[in-house]
UniProtKB/TrEMBL annotation:
Pathway: Glycolipid biosynthesis; lipid IV(A) biosynthesis; lipid IV(A) from (3R)-3-hydroxytetradecanoyl-[acyl-carrier-protein] and UDP-N-acetyl-alpha-D-glucosamine: step 2/6. It catalyses: a UDP-3-O-[(3R)-3-hydroxyacyl]-N-acetyl-alpha-D-glucosamine + H2O = a UDP-3-O-[(3R)-3-hydroxyacyl]-alpha-D-glucosamine + acetate. GO terms for molecular function: metal ion binding; UDP-3-O-acyl-N-acetylglucosamine deacetylase activity. GO terms for biological process: lipid A biosynthetic process. Catalyzes the hydrolysis of UDP-3-O-myristoyl-N-acetylglucosamine to form UDP-3-O-myristoylglucosamine and acetate, the committed step in lipid A biosynthesis. The gene is wcbS. It is an enzyme of class 3 (hydrolase). Its cofactor is Zn(2+). InterPro entries: Ribosomal_Su5_D2-typ_SF, UDP-acyl_GlcNac_deAcase, UDP-acyl_GlcNac_deAcase_C, UDP-acyl_N-AcGlcN_deAcase_N. One of its GO terms (cellular component) is membrane. This is UDP-3-O-acyl-N-acetylglucosamine deacetylase. It comes from Methylobacterium oxalidis. The active site is at H271. Zn(2+) binds at H85, H244, D248.
Length: 291
């Protein structure tokens, strides 16, 4: 019996563009996502005001610490930040190769969810390329911890997540599922970025007085604001905050450079812990293999 053919890499069938304000800079940006050839990966290309451009691949080696988001930067290049929602949608829809052109530092936040990116990807379509698609299969348990925060990944036949989050006055929230285009778009993509209003307002004041780009674009239209025991305007479905943490996690895991086969357990995780897990996994060749 002949072996089944390996799955193929894919890109977008057509380009799309979207415009919106950044969550942290508050500045408008236009993003154009265009098809790319096999082996490109997800490549961010920032156009500078002087007409030059600089590129950075969406890989864990180029992740740099920035508050409350995922950011990429090469040693000699400019920063590109808040990439996690687009990366999550591209990963969930199995888009391996795309060129992301942006005319500002930060991608748009839209309504705080990944639904606008999902709609754009579905409209553009997906097309297979004449190159095999390699996946990163986890071979043994890898975990990272920081106090009550914990994140691990173990061998599995597909990417699945078991997540837990406890918020004061809101209680414990859980989400478990296997990541597919349908699961991502239906259960995770609608979940919005969130935060407590009592912490957001001082941060916005700090950003205004210091000139730092933190939450300058955050408002009730771009985030789910928590006041006491409620979300202003209500939640988009049950356990919205933990679902958004999983959304971010999917985007951050894509920085490994390919689709991951593994089961993730997450407790109170965030970008810092997500990045630490990816780096620990990828720095240990005995913990994974390409298939």
């Amino acid at each position: 019996m002949e072996a089944e053919p390996a799955p193929l890499q894919a890109t977008l069938a057509s380009a799309f563009a979207r415009t919106g304000r950044g969550l942290h800079t508050g500045r408008r940006a236009t993003v154009r996502v265009i098809p790319a050839e096999a082996g490109t990966g997800i490549l961010f290309c920032r156009r500078m005001p002087d007409g030059t451009s600089a590129s950075v691949r969406a890989l864990w080696q180029y992740q740099v610490p920035q508050p409350l988001c995922t950011a990429l930067q090469t040693p000699e290049g400019p920063l590109v930040r808040t990439v996690e929602h687009l990366l999550a949608a591209l990963s969930a829809f199995a888009i391996d190769n795309a060129r992301v052109e942006i005319d500002a530092e930060e991608l748009p936040i839209f309504d705080g969810s990944a639904l606008p990116w999902c709609a754009a990807i579905r409209e553009a379509g997906r097309v297979a390329l004449a190159a095999p698609r390699s996946r990163i299969r986890v071979r043994r348990l890898v975990e990272v911890r920081d106090g009550r925060r914990a994140l691990s990944i173990a061998p599995a036949d597909a990417l699945s997540v078991e997540a837990r989050l406890v918020l004061a006055h809101l209680g414990e929230m859980r989400w478990t599922g296997t990541i597919s285009p349908e699961t991502f778009e239906g259960a995770l993509a609608p979940a919005r970025s969130f935060g407590r209003l009592k912490w957001a307002l001082p941060l916005k004041l700090y950003a205004f007085t210091t000139g730092r780009p933190i939450l300058r674009g955050a408002d009730f239209s771009s985030t789910a604001a928590i006041v006491g025991s409620r979300v202003v305007g209500g939640m988009r479905g049950p356990a919205e905050p933990v679902r958004h943490r999983v959304l971010d996690l999917i985007g951050d895991l894509s920085l490994a450079g390919g689709p991951i086969l593994g089961h993730v357990r997450a407790a109170h995780t965030g970008h810092t812990l997500n990045h630490a897990l990816v780096a620990k996994l990828m720095r240990d060749p005995s913990a994974w293999e390409l298939v």
